[in-house]
Amino acid sequence: MSNAISTQPDSYLEFWNEYHLCTLTTLRPNGRPHLVPVGVTLDVDAGVARVITRKSSRKVANILAGGGEAHVALCQVDGGRWATLEGVAEVCTDDDVVEDAVARYGKRYGRTPAPDPERVVILVSIERALGQTLGARPQAAQAAA
Questions:
Q1: HSE toward the beta carbon, residue 38, CA cutoff 13 A
Q2: Distance separating alpha carbons of residues 10 and 60, to the nearest angstrom
Q3: In terms of C-beta density within 10 A (0-12 exposed, 13-18 middle, 19 or more buried), how is residue 31 classed?
Q4: Tens digit of pLDDT for each residue in 27-42?
Q5: How far apart, in whole angstroms, are the C-alpha atoms of residue 120 and residue 98?
Q6: Mind giving me the DSSP string for 73-110?
């Protein structure tokens, strides 16, 4: 489990269970940032965040261009509350992992996406968690390297 996420206050973890669109930032091969809206689910016990997407997406191409994994950031904002997760992303095509990620998405966002044979999961191993939630002081934790 990532210390970065497990040491955050309850308000931070609850914020990641609320209905919010998030953003995913990856880097293009030329080094420029690529930022897109996504749905994110957080698995505190595993220390990972999940994003479901199509394997033909630019975000997947950016991750694969980094040799199969890449440093990314996930963020969500609601007024003065915000949370960012930084970590290493990999693309997973395993059917069971995809099915689990879709179920988690359905639970957080209240709807299950239609089946898509092109669906993959971006798994982000969380290395750092930052944020300000419910008037709490800014939190930052980093996993031991």
A1: 26
A2: 31
A3: exposed
A4: 999 999 999 999 999 9
A5: 6
A6: EEEEEETTEEEEEEEEEEEE--HHHHHHHHHHHHHHHS
SS3 for 54? Answer: strand
Q: What's the pLDDT score for residue 57?
A: 98
Token readout for 86 is 């930084």
Tokens describing residue 36:
């897109």
Phi-psi region of 17 (alpha: psi -120 to 50; beta: other; left: phi over 0): alpha
What separation in angstroms does the CA of 55 have from each of 45, 49, 90, 96, 134? 26, 17, 12, 16, 36
- Interacting residues of 56 by C-beta distance below 8 A, sequence separation 6+: 118
Report the run of H or E that residue 5 belongs to, with start and end: helix 3-6
As a whole number of angstroms, the distance between CA 6 and CA 15 comes to 14
What do you get for the CA distance between the two ends of the chain, in Å? 13
